[in-house]
Amino acid sequence: MKASLTVLPGDGIGPEVTTQAVNVLNAVAAKFGHEFSYEEALLGGIAIDKTGNPLPPETLRTAEQSDAVLLGAVGLPKYDAATVRPEQGLLGIRKHFGLFANLRPVKAYPVLAHYAPLRPELLEGVDMLFVRELTGGMYFGERQEQGDGDTAYDTELYSVPEVERVAHVAFRAAQIRRNKVTSVDKANVLAAMRLWRRTVTKVHEDYSDVELEHALVDSCAMHLLTRPSSFDVLLASNMFGDILSDEASVLAGSLGMLPSASLGEGRFGLYEPVHGSAPDIAGQGKANPIGTILSAAMLLRYSLALEDEARAVEAAVDAVLASGARTADIAGGGQWLSTSEFAQAIIAQI
Ligand code: NAD
């Protein structure tokens, strides 16, 4: 197949990791007979440096003409206190494309179990996918600080269509995984969460091949640590998904390992590692490219519907880790490969 992809390297280690993910995509294209073309554009600090705008209109035009966007990371220390900030570019592009579902897989690698804070036997078989609602709920509801600031409120507001569309994403994702969805809510207390549970239950009627369980957010937070391997897809509201996916991310051993996808209606998506621009290690060959390479695998799966190709990338990452190869962040002071050497090992596996 032919696909055109926008690459937004961004700042810090962003260019290092996206370069390697593109190399991996090229290896996939060569092996499976596809033709991928790439257009690079500016986002974040580098876009402010060159144009004064963290999300130049030209970047949006390029992305609009592509099948998917692969993003590195944004953020530069010199903009930390500025009013025009790199992160505004990231929020802007998510908003522009109406990306309402955020997908974050968390997998525990047995060979990295000693980097995670749980006992190794609890990490066996941990392979879950968070589907977090990204554009509604408490983070976007009406809020106000009243009087001289001694009273304040935020609003958790969800509509049935908002919950339906993200629930469909979760059920469809489960169909190409292990056919189970755990929907997280607080239906015993919150009205918006009763609407959430009711709506998810109704959407489930279209997916008889998928098992649905409801979990209260408090017990779910516990079970993520006591029986993490029991989860397949976790569907959660914006706030609960934010908190729980960060809790679960520690199971993977390093921030550099974690990919993500943000999806809207249709197949278009934005794919990026969970980590930031890591200015402390930029330009030293120390960046772990796995998060971005696994984001590229998600791009193959969700935007291009190339499931076999996505699995080939994931299997190559598994095999390289199992062979003992490490990047600096997961070497524990031992020998490590540079960002590009590690990516080359993955390409050799593919
Ligand atoms: P960070 O994720 O950039 O780094 C946290 C720590 O993890 C650092 O020690 C870093 O060296 C390490 N790390 C991160 N990614 C790594 C990788 N791939 N390989 C090896 N080690 C890795 O978070 P931070 O330091 O809090 O933020 C740095 C900048 O990134 C800030 O400007 C922040 O606003 C921005 N940021 C951007 C995003 C994004 O683009 N999505 C997300 C988080 C933070």
Class from secondary-structure proportions:
alpha/beta
Total strand count, please?
A: 12
Q: How many discrete structural domains?
A: 2
Please name the CATH architecture of the largest domain.
3-Layer(aba) Sandwich
**Helical proportion?**
40-55%
Q: Which series of helices and strands comes N to C?
A: EHEHHEHEHEEEHEHEHEHEEHHH
Question: What does the model show?
Answer:
This protein is α/β, with parallel strands linked by helices. The protein has two domains: about 1-105 and about 255-350, Isopropylmalate Dehydrogenase (3-Layer(aba) Sandwich); about 115-250, 3-Layer(aba) Sandwich (Isopropylmalate Dehydrogenase). It is about 40% helix and about 20% strand. It is built from twelve helices and twelve strands. Strands 2-1-3-12-11-4-5-10-8-9 form a ten-stranded mixed β-sheet, with helices on both faces. A two-stranded antiparallel ribbon has the order 6-7. Helix 1 packs across helix 10 (about 290-300). The protein is globular. The model has no long low-confidence stretch (mean pLDDT about 95). The structure holds nicotinamide-adenine-dinucleotide. Nicotinamide-adenine-dinucleotide (NAD) binds near residues 276 and 291. The site of nicotinamide-adenine-dinucleotide (NAD) has 20 residues, from helix 4.
